[in-house]
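We emphasize that the prediction below concerns an isolated chain of 437 residues; any contacts that depend on oligomerization or on bound cofactors are therefore not represented. The input was used exactly as deposited, without trimming of termini.
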Amino acid sequence: MNTPEQSSIDRRSFLVQSGAAATAASVMGFPFVGRGAEQSVAPLKIALVGCGGRGAGAANQALVADKQARLVAVADLFADKLASGLKALKGIHGDRVDVPPERQFVGFEGYKQAIAAADVVILGTPCAFRPAHFEEAVRQGKHSFLEKPVAVDAPGVRRVLAAGAEARRKNLKVAVGFQRRHKKGFQEMVRRIHDGQLGEVIYTRAFANTPLRTGLVRKPEFGELEYQCRNWYYFSWLSADFIVDNLIHGIDISNWIHNAYPVRAHGMGALSERSPDYGDLFDHFAVEWEYPSGGRLFGECDRRPGCWASVSNHAVGSLGKADFLDGRELYSITGKNPWQMKSERGENPYQQEHDDFFEAIHKNLPYDESEYGAKSTLTAIMGRMAAYSGKIVEWDAALNSNFSLAPDIASMSDKPPILPGENGLYPIAAAGRTVAF
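Result of the prediction step, given as a C-alpha cell string:
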C-alpha cells in the first residue's frame, strides 16, 4: 500500500499493462452483471477525486480499460498532491489527460466541481470522505469507482448503502476496489466451495500481516489538521485503522465464501510502541467473527517489524480445506475432493476490475458492488469496534451505531477530532474503557 505522501502512479505496486483492455469476464456472484444492449456513445469523461497513489493508480487503470476515455477534471485537498498525480498521468496518457487549470480543484469542496465535469468518477481520497463524495456522484448521476474501504464508521456505511440503492434506481454503475473478486483463482475457488467441494464450511481464516510502515514526520509549516490529512493512514478517523484498510480484503473474501455477513464479533488488539508519527492506530489485531450458520472467521493483522508475515485466505470444511495464496497465485483444495490451480503471475486484478466496470458502462449492464462493499467494510469496522472496546459486538448494534469517527470538516482551519498530548503522542483506545460503538 502506498504511504500517505507517495504520489507514484503505482496502485499496490502493480505494473502498468499496455495494449487493449481484455474483454471482461463475468464475475461469479459479485457483482451482478446481466445482459444489456451495446451502446455507441461519445468518449467518456473521467474525474479523479484524490490524486495520491490510490487515486492516480485507479485513474490510470480506467484510462487503460477505455482507450477512448479522457481524464477531464481532478480534485485534491493539496495542490502539490494534485500536481504530482496529474503529472504522472499526463506522462503515461498524454493528450487523453485534458485537465486545464480551470478543471483542477483544491480544497474540501473541490470534489463537487470535478464530479460535475465528468461521466465517471474515481473516488480515491482517504475513506473518511468517501460517503459524502459517493452521495454527490449519485446525486449528479455519475458512474462511480470507490476505493475501499467505503467508510470509517457505521453512519458512513449507512450513507453508502443508501446512495448505492439510489444508484441502482438511476441505473448507475458502481465499482468498489475489492480486486480479489476479479481474480480467476479466487472466482474458481469460491465457485467450487459454493458447489460443495469442501462440504459444510466450518471456519475461514484471513491474514494481513505485513511490515510496519513509517508515518509522515511533521513539517513545521503543517497545521494540526493538515498534518493529519497528509498522514491520513495513521489516524483512525481518516483511515478506519489498518484492520479496516488492510485486512478488509481477506474479510471480504471470507464473507463471499460464507455467502453471508457475521452476526457478531469479539477480539483484541493494541499498539506496541508509541510514536508521534504513528497517530492513534493499533499495530496488531486478532478478531473472531461468527456467521449465521455458526461458521467462523478468524482474522488477524500485524504491522510490527520482525514478526511473521502472511497475506492469505484459508477455509476449512467438513470434507477438506482450501488455501488461497495470493501473490504466489496458488489455489488448492485438499481432502476428499482435491484440486489445484496456479494462475499466471501476469494477471492484474486491479486492471481487471476496471475492465469489468467500463464494459458494464458501455454495454449498459447492471453493475453494482456498493452493497457488499459497504457490508464488508462494516464487517471490518465490527472487528475494530470489538478490539477497541473489548466487548462482543452484534451486527445490528454495529450497523445502527451512531458513534461517528469522521466529523464534518470544511476547511484546514477546523479542529481535528483528535489532538496530541503534551508529549506529542495521541490518545489510543483502551479495551474495557473505550466506547467504540
